C-alpha cells in the first residue's frame, strides 16, 4: 500500500475520532495540538488496528504522537 493511501485513510480516521479536526494534517502535527486527548488517541489507535488489520503494541502508544509517526508505523506494520 502506498504512503499517500495510508495518509489519506489515517487522516479520515483522525477526523472521525477528533470531530473538530479540520483542514490539512501535516505529518508533524501532534495529536494533542489537534485537540485529541489520551482517550481519543486510544480510540484512534483501535480504529487504525481495525482499518489496517494490524496490532499496535502497548509499547508503541507513547511513541506514536504525530500524524507522521502513525503513518510510518502503519507502513512498517503492513
Low-confidence stretches: none
H/E element order: HHH
Using the coordinates above, name the CATH class: Mainly Alpha
* Percent of sequence in beta strands: under 5%
Q: Overview of this structure, please?
A:
With 78 residues, the chain is an all-alpha fold. The chain has one domain: Orthogonal Bundle (Non-ribosomal Peptide Synthetase Peptidyl Carrier Protein, Chain A). It has helices at residues 3-17, 38-52, 67-77. The chain is globular and about 30 Å long. It starts with a helix and ends with a helix.
Briefly, what is this?
The protein is mainly alpha-helical and 78 residues long.
Which descriptors apply to this entry?
78 residues; Non-ribosomal Peptide Synthetase Peptidyl Carrier Protein, Chain A; single chain; 3 helices; 0% strand; mainly alpha
Secondary structure elements and pairings:
Elements: H1 3-17, H2 38-52, H3 67-77
